[in-house]
Amino acid sequence: MRSVEHGNLIDDSSVELFLRKDAFLVPTLVTYWALKEEGMAFGLPEASW
């Protein structure tokens, strides 16, 4: 398999590996939406939303 799911915190060395392996990144963008829209209601610290 040549994909990584939930790759939101990818760093530069990971990008290099992806390129060498011709892999695919599937970020989970809804996570950021949920933190922004619902983080406060769930008691998360302000830095999380």
UniProtKB/TrEMBL annotation:
<dbReference type="InterPro" id="IPR032466">
    <property type="entry name" value="Metal_Hydrolase"/>
</dbReference>
<protein>
    <recommendedName>
        <fullName>DUF397 domain-containing protein</fullName>
    </recommendedName>
</protein>
